UniProtKB/TrEMBL annotation:
One Pfam family of this chain: Pirin_C
Protein name from the UniProt record: Pirin family protein
Species of provenance: Streptomyces albipurpureus
Pirin N-terminal domain location: 41-141
Secretion signal span: none
Amino acid sequence: MSNLDRQAAPSVCGGRGFVVSEPVRELLSPRRVQLGESTEVRRLLPNLGRRMVGAWAFVDHYGPDDIANEPGMQVPPHPHMGLQTVSWLHEGEVLHRDSTGSLATIRPRELGLMTSGRAISHSEESPRSHARFLHGAQLWVALPDTHRHVEPHFQHHTALPTVTAPGLTATVILGALDGATSPGTTYTPIVGADLTLTHGADLNLPLNPDFEYAVLSMSGEAVVDGVPVLPGSMLYLGCGRTELPLRARSDAGLMLLGGEPFEEELLMWWNFVGRTQAEIEQARKDWMEGTRFGEVKGYDGGPLLAPELPPLPLKARGRVR
């Protein structure tokens, strides 16, 4: 998934200086961003109030959108470096192509995991013949310095482990939850899980007290640790929790995101995660000159152009603004 903002703002993420070391309840509101010609997303990370949750550095929620008579998602070829992208759907399909030659149609509750490593490019689009509704989330996971130059690769997992309890089915997207481990490759201690709650569910979900957590509401009405969380919003929970109270006022869908607080400070601009301004400048130059990021074959259209870098030096702002 690309950041298509033509006025892309730089931000430095990571570092433990702003990690909340105890449980909190910090409700984050989204910023609405146009993605391509026909898809609007609600951007939760980076946020004016918070920039990372563990290694999770970017979260977009979109839909449900009625695209029966629309082209749906149409994101031309664009570059990434220093991160993993996670495609997660509740409804619809997304056709993924990338410069390693991968071609896959991602469907609901299947994991599309692209590791950019040193450099990759990809496109995302709704298939020509597609379902009526499109609803999902696109997320980025920052790669640590020891692994940010790995060879780019793509994984598509159609079957993922689940954890069940009365009123709950939790699909483990990345990492491990309550003894169930995702097959997706990770490079830092992290967890991502899709939580399906039935109306009236009332339970406590086990957590790792060393992780910081947030919950994204996808659909329905749920109460997370006493806080009502509506679709398109995200509740930051801090660290130090051994369990999380969940209650469903209707059938509801949530995403649990967590991980060890990310120690390194990262410079993130447009679709690049680096460590210095020189790295970001070189990545933009390489993309515009058609080197390093490879070619996405089969997409009907040209690649995205990178926005202009801001005139002032990119500055660190920490995990929170």
